[in-house]
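Escalation from tier 1.

The customer reports that the assembly of two entities below gives different structure tokens on two consecutive runs. Tier 1 could not reproduce it. I'm attaching the input and our single run for tier 2 to review.
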Amino acid sequence: DADVTQTPRNRITKTGKRIMLECSQTKGHDRMYWYRQDPGLGLRLIYYSFDVKDINKGEISDGYSVSRQAQAKFSLSLESAIPNQTALYFCATSDRWTYTFGSGTRLTVV
Amino acid sequence: ELKVEQNPLFLSMQEGKNYTIYCNYSTTSDRLYWYRQDPGKSLESLFVLLSNGAVKQEGRLMASLDTKARLSTLHITAAVHDLSATYFCAVEGGTSYGKLTFGQGTILTVHP
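Tier 1 run:
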């Protein structure tokens, strides 16, 4: 099994729908992150969490929310999806020195 | 606010040639990372650079860090087609403690 697992891998949803992207990890790391990748913009941080009780906004948190259900699980929600949220989303974990990324979720909002 | 800029954003190379990707960042950092991404895939860690003057090499890739200039370079020696990918640098530290700030990425294409 992968160290960082994201589900679903691909998702097409309609404008206005609520959608949740899930991430689970087996690394035992306390720190977890959600990034969004758009062509030409690199990866931008949406939310991050240093432990179960700690949630922080990143540079582009508007329109997103997160839930840290356990040390191993960190979910990203789009409350009302809009087309400009179409992107590749990555979950990552860290032990302060190394970062491990999931395989990504390709989300299309139509 | 930490900003990270890479150049060039697009790089088309012939096999056998050498080239360098540059990564500039705006504030003090603790660590600088280089990643490789193949199309539609996840990020693969290449190097972590911790201190001024650090140099690391793996195969045809060599990364260096100059913290005084706030500059890292990724040098490609005798490029081969298998190196075609997108390369990202990312910086952690200062106001971005505990999280990575990424450059835009450099799309490298190596031609025969």
